Amino acid sequence: MSDAAVMEPAMGPVNHVVARWEGEHRFSAGREGIMTLMDGSAKAGQSPVDILLSAVTVCGAIDVVDILAKRRTPVESFTLESRGERKAEHPRRFTHLFVTYRVVGAGIEAVHAERAIQLAWERYCSVAGSLHEDIVVETTLVVNGASQASVIQTVGH
Q1: Where are the domains of the chain?
Q2: 146: buried, middle or exposed (CB in 10 Å: 19+, 13-18, 0-12)?
Q3: Cys-Cys link to 59, which of 35, 108, 127, 136 (CB 3.0-4.6 A)?
Q4: pLDDT (tens digit per residue) in 7-59
Q5: Which CATH number does the domain 48-153 belong to among 3.30.300.20, 3.40.50.1820, 3.90.1720.10, 3.40.640.10?
Q6: DSSP string, 106-151
């Protein structure tokens, strides 16, 4: 087999961030010009773990908005609340996530919103796909004020 025949795996998108120490446990991090203050003490900004929880929450929510828009049932308002339980010992990684989706929009049906949430966790959310695969994710949907049963999601890998 020639060297030309040896194929390297295709490289996907590459992200690049910069972090600058701001003193104590504070760092500004992100893409140049779009920096976020992180604070390991969670006094002046979100902690890195809070940012991870925010990132997985928003990443999946973007997918839900897009999927519902493609169904011609656009979201009018959307609020999410996430809570993450972590191991007691180091590394104190997440073991269980609870995410509540409160979505309002004319014509949005719970079955379609639930499917959008499922697709976000299983297939589309890059942040979720980067998390440890044994994390339990429990989602609760509230559509136009009507609460649905909680669902355990499968995190895509």
Answers
A1: 1-46, 48-153
A2: exposed
A3: 127
A4: 667 788 898 999 999 999 999 999 988 999 999 999 999 999 999 999 999 99
A5: 3.30.300.20
A6: TT--HHHHHHHHHHIIIII-HHHHTS-TT-EEEEEEEETTEE---E
